[in-house]
Design a protein that fits this description.
Blueprint: E1 12-15, E2 23-25, E3 28-31, E4 37-40, H1 50-63, H2 68-71, H3 80-87, H4 94-107, H5 118-123, E5 130-133, H6 138-148, E6 156-157, H7 170-178, E7 186-190, H8 193-202, E8 205-209, E9 223-224, E10 230-233
Parallel strand pairs: 4-5, 4-7, 5-6, 7-8, 8-9
Antiparallel strand pairs: 1-10, 2-3
Helix pairs in contact: 3-4, 4-6
Length: 237
C-alpha cells in the first residue's frame, strides 16, 4: 500500500509475522505490487449484516409471493432499487417498497458485528487511504456501522451516490476519485459476486472475503476469512 508523502515501493500488507516487500499474505505473496488505497464493501465484507438483511428481505419476498430461497441470493451486493425493479413485479411502486424496506432494515440490526479483525485493521489505516463502498443507502450504512461498533470512514460511497449500482464499476471509480487515486492503484475487498464484478470492471485488484460464505465461491482472486492476521505497514521514502 503506497501511503505517505511519497508512497513507497516497499510498503507491505501482511498476514502473520512474516515481513517482506510488496503486499504479502501468509507465507506467499498476495500481490507483487503496492497500492495507493484500499476499498471495502460493507455488508458481509467488514460487518456481519447478511442475516439481518435476509430477515427483512425474506419477509418482503413472502408478502410478494416469491420463493424466498430462490430470491435471497439476488439481494447481496446490489442496491435495493435494482433488486426490486429487476423482478418486474406488476403493480409495485419500487421506490415506495425500497423506502419501506430501508426503514425495516434500520430497525433490525440484531446480530450485526464487525467481521473478525476488521475493526483493528481499519483503525490501522490512514484515513485518506481507504473507503467503504456499499450498495446500501447512506442512512442504513451509518446505522449498521454504528451497530457493529465501527466509526464511519472519511470516504463513504453509497448506493445513492452513483447512477449505476454494482455490478457496474461506478461506485469504485468514484471512491478512487474521492481518495485522489487511480483505480488501477486500488485493491477492493468484496464478498459478493456483484461487487467482485464491479471491481473487476473498474480495473482494481480484488481480495474476496469469505467470512460469511455458506458455500465455496469459485474465484481466481485471493481470499481471506477475516482480518485478524492482516496488517498494513508502510515505509516512507
Amino acid at each position: 500500500m503506497r501511503i505517505g508523502r511519497a508512497l513507497c515501493a516497499s510498503a507491505e500488507l501482511l498476514q502473520g509475522d512474516r515481513r517482506g516487500t510488496d503486499l504479502v499474505m501468509s507465507e506467499s505473496p498476495l500481490f507483487k505490487r503496492t497500492f495507493g488505497a484500499l476499498l471495502f464493501d460493507m455488508d458481509g465484507t467488514i460487518i456481519s449484516s447478511v442475516a439481518a438483511a435476509e430477515r427483512v428481505w425474506a419477509a418482503w419476498a413472502q408478502r410478494q409471493g416469491l420463493d424466498v430461497a430462490t430470491f435471497l441470493p439476488r439481494i447481496h451486493g446490489v442496491r435495493g432499487i435494482d433488486v426490486i425493479t429487476g423482478l418486474d413485479l406488476p403493480g409495485i411502486d419500487a421506490h415506495a417498497e425500497v423506502q419501506a424496506i430501508l426503514l425495516a432494515e434500520i430497525e433490525d440490526v440484531g446480530g450485526i458485528e464487525a467481521i473478525e479483525g476488521a475493526a483493528a485493521f481499519l483503525a490501522s489505516l490512514p484515513p485518506n487511504r481507504w473507503a467503504i463502498v456499499t450498495s446500501s443507502p447512506r442512512q442504513l450504512a451509518l446505522r449498521r456501522l454504528e451497530a457493529a461498533g465501527l466509526p464511519p470512514p472519511a470516504v463513504l460511497v453509497t448506493g445513492e451516490d452513483i447512477e449505476h449500482g454494482k455490478p457496474a464499476p461506478d461506485c469504485f471509480l468514484l471512491a478512487a476519485k474521492l481518495l485522489g487515486q487511480k483505480i488501477e492503484d486500488c485493491v477492493v475487498f468484496e464478498d459478493a459476486p456483484a461487487g467482485i464484478q464491479a471491481a473487476e470492471a473498474a480495473g482494481a485488484a480484488v481480495v474476496v472475503v469469505t467470512a460469511l460464505h455458506k458455500h465455496p465461491l469459485d474465484t481466481n482472486h485471493p481470499t481471506i476469512t477475516g482480518y485478524g492476521k492482516l496488517t498494513a505497514a508502510l515505509l516512507r521514502v
